[in-house]
Amino acid sequence: MNPFSSGTRLRDMIRAIRACKTAAEERAVVRKECASIRAAISENDQDYRHRNLAKLMFIHMLGYPTHFGQMECLKLIASPGFPEKRIGYLGLMLLLDERQEVLMLVTNSIKQDLNHTNQYIVGLALCALGNICSAEMARDLAPEVERLLQFRDPNIRKKAALCSIRIIKKVPDLAENFINPAASLLKEKHHGVLLTGVQLCTDMCNVSSEAHEHFKKKCIDGLVKVLKDLTNSPYAPEYDISGISDPFLHIRLLKLLRVLGQGDADASDIMNDILAQVATKTESNKNAGNAILYQCVVTIMSIEDNGGLRVLAVNILGRFLSSRDNNIRYVALNMLMKAIALDSQAVQRHRVTILECVKDSDASIRKRALELIYLLVNENNVKLLTKELIDYLEVTDPDFKEDLTAKICSIVEKFSPEKLWYIDQMLKVLSEAGNFVKDDVWHALIVVITNAPNLHGYTVRSLYKAVQTAGDQETLVRVAVWCIGEYGELLVSNTGVLDVEDPITVTEADALDVVETAIGNPSSDLTTRAMCLVASLKLSSHFPSCSKRVSDIVRHHKGSLVLELQQRAIEFNSIIEKHGKIRSTLVERMPVLDEATFSGRRAGSMPPSVSTSQGALPKIPNGVAKPTSAPLVDLLDFSSDDIPVPGGSGGDFLQDLLGVDISPSPSQVTSGTQKSGTDVLLDLLSIGTPPAQSNLSTLDILSPSQDIKSPVDVLTKLASPSPSAQTSTPVGGSSMLDLLDDFGTTLSLPETNGPTYPAIIAFESSSLKVTFNFSKEPGSPQTTLIEARFTNKSPNAYSNFVFQAAVPKFLQLHLDPASSNTLPANSNDSITQKLRVSNSQHGKKSLVMRLRINYKVNDKDVLEEGQINNFPRDL
Amino acid sequence: MGIRFVLMVNKQGQTRLAQYYEYLNVEERRALEGEIVRKCLTRTQQQCSFVEHRNYKVVYRRYASLFFLVGVDNEENELAILEFIHLLVETMDRHFGNVCELDIMFHLEKAHFMLEEMVMNGCIIETSKTNILSQIQLMERAS
């Protein structure tokens, strides 16, 4: 006989699975077993039903799908015998969940079993109901459960109590029916009933304020008495755990008292004595006793203030904290977190011990302690604590560095008493764990540095020193490169030396070495390299002796395969070679970045999907050039020109000078707004890249709730540029264009009346490409004319070519007939089709479109679909 | 609802019993078990018995080759859960007599019945070993 027929015993199956050497063997055994169980199910095999279900439970535990066995559970539950029902209910609880329709079918069986004459079967049904009951079942079966709360057997009453918890959580309206039966459970003597009854009351307080009031008025005295009897009870072997009678019941009672005492001075008063008794008399040399003490402290901390009790509680925590048992220390740290809001002085007293816990070898304790320390920091102890934490950063293991770094940075930023200290600490963190520092942290550091003119020299020299030893920390290198670019001459000339500094001698070549090493380092990422290019351009002007080397570096990158670097290098090369006379003006030092704006932008946090990028868009001050031109103004430093520099968007400059990442971060997408004449310039100077192309995600654009997930859409919602910005566009644009002429560059300038938009690749597959060209009808900004062009990339001709498009409700779409319905092989743009889209939310939302393309190739129908999210904004 | 799941896992990381009190599908369970077991099994005896993972706090205790892991929410008393694990082990010990991994494997349903008598919907329901086992013995007599 085949050993894996449905006749195999459970035992044999388990043995067979255990004997498997590899995961593949195990899968094979399980597959065979499942197949035979399925066969047994389809034959409606009666005899082995519960054995098969037991097998399925085992298979389920191993993590294989077992849904096909669900109906078997129902059949077993419906059968008359206790053992069948037992295994059926167990299967129900393990294999099913409340989300499945099968539950509907089981409601009736449960109802019958709840009314069964055999109390053990009633118990089974209650247990299952308590574990899997859904809202509908709760409504249907609540009366039965309510009745069973008064059943003669305590084992049924306790299960009914827990079942009631599930019911009132699913349907809070039903809570009022349970108030009286629940209150009467508190008078029980049976521990199980009392335990579950107290739990029921606690949960009822959470869902119903009526119940809360009722228990507060009627039950506190009784509860206090129960607790008192319990603590003073003589030895009860059945419930005794290391000398304490039923610690679980103790804890439940204390939890209920906490809920009842919260915010009620009278109620708190009644329980004072018993809490004091528990806190002082409970043995603390065993885990069970400590569990009770711990719960008692939680209760004391939550109920209304009673000075004496609080002192007692904090003392217990102090004792816990100095315990040698790590479990006890862990809960102490946990509790101190809560205590800090009540009595921070008392917690401060334990600061030294907590700091020791940060350095513990146990990750759980370290994490708790670090969070606690973070809450303990204030203006007075920040220097001390930061020093300790930074010292520890040097020796900690890498897993913990990320958390620790984030916390240190946050502390330093929040409580820094002076800039010098801030810069010093940040440099230490950067040199120690620069790779863990988040972007916004080092951006903030640069803002602070620019705002401290007397420390420029000091900072750049410190950074120079730091980079020599910790050149592998990327963020440190970035900050250093930026500062050397800006303040390189201070590094060489040793200007503004502070008393605390050791003098160093750095030559111009040394300074450039740092930049050159960084750009040449294969592990440097694109942002760092781009920053290096800018820095070297700046140095070429400050250090004439190095200009040859700089132009070599720049020229070397003209051939870079990374578009951004190549573009920059070509532009910079042209500045160096052709425009020597304006070079020094171009690379003047950055104006001071505005701290307030930057912190404001950080605070106005972005949606989580784009959390790595910098805050929301800056506000555009009225009558000032639009933001796209602002960074330009800044990079070139035309501040003497007649273009008004927007005073309020300092952070924006930073963003654009620092945020050179090529990933489609929102800021760059923003700079792609309002593609007008200025954009040509913008592209020339390569601040940011054009918005992401071919962002053909599969989001369902038609459901608005999902729109938000696409970064482009998020921006659209945020963007809504003010009209003033729009009107000023041409002004800013044209003055830029004049300047452009100065470059002598030959650019085909777009017609300046009305904005133009770059063409996009709307869709591209291995066989087909669709490009969109945009134009606007004069006088109706809402309407966009799109010219779609189709390219056949394959060597086969396409016939019956049909292009269809769909748009969400806020758009209206009109499709003109296509120029042809056949697309010759390897042809470019041989079909064109015009679309007209009106955007009723113009300025608020950008266009989105889904498209579907049908065609025949070699007599086979082909369907291609896609979604276009990369429309230029503001269409 | 304090207890979210109870797991029994051997030293090799194989699950021997799993009971969840909130719904997770099979893939989520496998992932969760893998992550938690990896975290807990690498810890030493001296380290504390609590591990924070996702939004769970896992309280674990090791008995010979078997790890008992209980996932709880933030409001739960960790020390009490530690005591509960011990109670569970003592109960199984009384029934099986020196319980071992194989007892649980080959009597999975009984282990489940015991757990079911002790925890329901994430709450502790009974703490007396006699009361818990009387229901199991009844079952044995019936079959």
From TrEMBL, chain A:
Name all GAE domain ranges: 755-872
Q: Name one GO biological process term.
A: intracellular protein transport
One Pfam family name from the record? Answer: Adaptin_N
Q: Where is this region: Disordered?
A: 599-622
**Source taxon at top rank:** Eukaryota
Keywords, comma-separated and alphabetical: Cytoplasmic vesicle, Golgi apparatus, Membrane, Protein transport, Transport
Q: Does the keyword Ribosomal protein apply?
A: no
Subcellular locations according to the entry: Cytoplasmic vesicle, Clathrin-coated vesicle membrane; Golgi apparatus
- Family named by the database record: Belongs to the adaptor complexes large subunit family.
Q: What is the name of this protein?
A: AP-1 complex subunit gamma
- The protein's organism comes out as Erythranthe guttata
Q: What is the lineage of its organism?
A: Eukaryota, Viridiplantae, Streptophyta, Embryophyta, Tracheophyta
UniProtKB/TrEMBL annotation, chain B:
> Could you tell me which Pfam families the record lists for this protein?
Clat_adaptor_s (PF01217)
Keywords tagged on the record: Membrane, Protein transport, Transport
Transmembrane regions listed in the UniProt entry = none
Which BP terms does GO give this entry? Answer: intracellular protein transport; vesicle-mediated transport
Q: AP complex mu/sigma subunit domain location, by residue?
A: 3-142
The family database entries (SUPFAM superfamilies) matched by this protein are listed as: SNARE-like
Record has Transport as a keyword: yes
Q: Can you say what this protein is called?
A: AP complex subunit sigma
Checking InterPro entries in the record gives:
AP_complex_ssu, AP_mu_sigma_su, Longin-like_dom_sf
Q: Which PANTHER family match?
A: ADAPTOR COMPLEXES SMALL SUBUNIT FAMILY (PTHR11753)
Annotated compartments: Endomembrane system
Organism lineage: Eukaryota, Viridiplantae, Streptophyta, Embryophyta, Tracheophyta
User: Its principal location?
Assistant: membrane
Q: Which CDD domains match?
A: AP4_sigma
What does the similarity note say?
A: Belongs to the adaptor complexes small subunit family.
Q: Native species of this protein? A: Erythranthe guttata (Yellow monkey flower)
Q: Which GO terms describe its cellular component?
A: cytoplasm; endomembrane system
